[in-house]
From TrEMBL:
Compositionally skewed regions (Basic residues) per UniProt: 40-51
Transmembrane segments: 68-89
Signal peptide: none
Keywords: Membrane, Transmembrane, Transmembrane helix
Superkingdom of this protein's organism: Bacteria
Highest classification ranks of the organism: Bacteria, Bacillati, Actinomycetota, Actinomycetes, Streptosporangiales
Regions of compositional bias (Pro residues) in chain numbering: 107-116
Regions of compositional bias (Basic and acidic residues) in chain numbering: 25-39
Keyword Transmembrane: yes
Region (Disordered): 20-64, 95-141, 291-344
UniProt key word Transmembrane: yes
Entry protein name: Uncharacterized protein
Biased composition annotated in UniProt, kind: Low complexity: 97-106, 292-302
Length: 344
């Protein structure tokens, strides 16, 4: 399919050299004279006789000038078909970096940002895309857990991080079903009971979910950067391993239906999971999940992420010393409240 670059360019030189052969008003309204009408009637009678089969078998032929016109038209059509065929054979393919046909986006596919790379100019530009950024350490036997136990635990921890921070249903639709299925049945009951509960026990804090009507993905990619570490631990007298995951998730978001509002939302998530053996099985229990996000509203406290766009009038005033949301050198301190940021 030709693209805009294949369309003819009607520049000034072309327009000046072009001629439009339309009959004048006088020619359009000219009545045929007596001789012209006589010739027309005679030609009509000859055609009717030939088609009816009466008189001599005289074959009607197109006048010579009409035959010439038909031949010219036929020649033009042949040239047009040849040129179209040559263009089709030599058209640029998408693999060559050329133009390609525009196909409708799959249902649910996220829309693309209108201008450039939304991660450009930030540390996130060098981060890994999506799930590939969630790298687990090499499994090692530790504190009563075998190497195989730890390998299984890392697989399950990674799935939890994906379900809590990368699953579109969790992040943008506020439905953490995938995360709930990965929890221990006893913890799942608590998680479901406390979901969106008012107060400090709200289990919505365990995941990244944008508040309804505040954000939609500007890209299908989330930039991820962080570490996972394991250490010996003991919880309520049970020996096991504490797996600590500390990651930055950088989302390219925009106001729903507003492509001109694309921006970055930086979410830091620190999750601790206690891994232990019980009744011959490897068990996992989330013991901690802290989060910081920027730029976010200072007045909202419902467990959701409330992004603040550059055009927003406010959303609570930050106070204290400005912080770098990309800095993971210090632990998240929830009691410090809402602080300004140096960059996003």
């Amino acid at each position: 399919m030709p693209t805009d670059s294949d369309e003819p360019v009607f520049d000034d030189d072309f327009v000046k050299g072009a001629a439009f052969t339309e009959p004048s008003a006088q020619e359009r309204f000219h009545r045929p004279g007596r001789l012209e009408r006589s010739r027309a009637r005679w030609a009509g009678r000859r055609r009717r006789r030939t088609r009816a089969g009466g008189g001599s078998r005289r074959e009607y032929r197109e006048p010579s000038h009409r035959r010439a016109v038909v031949q010219v038209i036929a020649g033009v059509m042949v040239l047009l078909l040849i040129s179209t065929g040559l263009w089709w054979l030599n058209r640029p393919s998408p693999q060559d970096g050329g133009a390609s046909a525009i196909a409708p986006a799959p249902t649910g596919a996220p829309p693309q940002p209108p201008q450039g790379d939304p991660f450009a100019g930030s540390p996130a530009a060098g981060y890994t895309d999506g799930e590939a950024g969630l790298q687990m350490p090499d499994p090692k036997a530790m504190n009563g857990l075998s190497e195989a136990d730890m390998a299984l635990a890392y697989v399950r921890v990674r799935k939890m991080l994906i379900a809590a921070n990368l699953d579109p249903a969790t992040v943008y639709q506020r439905r953490p079903d995938a995360l709930a299925k990965l929890l221990d049945p006893a913890q799942r009951r608590d998680f479901t009971r406390d979901l969106d509960r008012k107060g400090e026990h709200n289990s919505r804090d365990w995941m990244t979910s944008f508040a309804a009507g505040t954000a939609e993905p500007a890209l299908g990619t989330v930039k991820v950067h962080g570490t996972v570490a394991a250490s010996k631990s003991r919880d309520q007298g049970t020996a096991g391993v504490r797996v600590t995951a500390d990651h930055l998730f950088v989302y390219a978001v925009r106001r729903p239906g507003r492509p001109e509002t694309v921006m970055r939302e930086v979410v830091r998530r620190v999750t601790e999971v206690f891994v232990y053996r019980e009744d011959g099985a490897v068990k996992l229990w989330i013991t901690k999940s802290d989060r910081s996000s920027a730029p976010s509203s200072c007045s909202a406290d419902d467990g959701f992420v409330h992004p603040v766009y550059p055009s927003d009038p406010g959303g609570g005033m930050p106070n204290g010393q400005a912080q770098d949301p990309y800095d993971q050198s210090a632990p998240i301190q929830a009691d410090r409240g809402c602080e300004p940021v140096t960059r996003v």
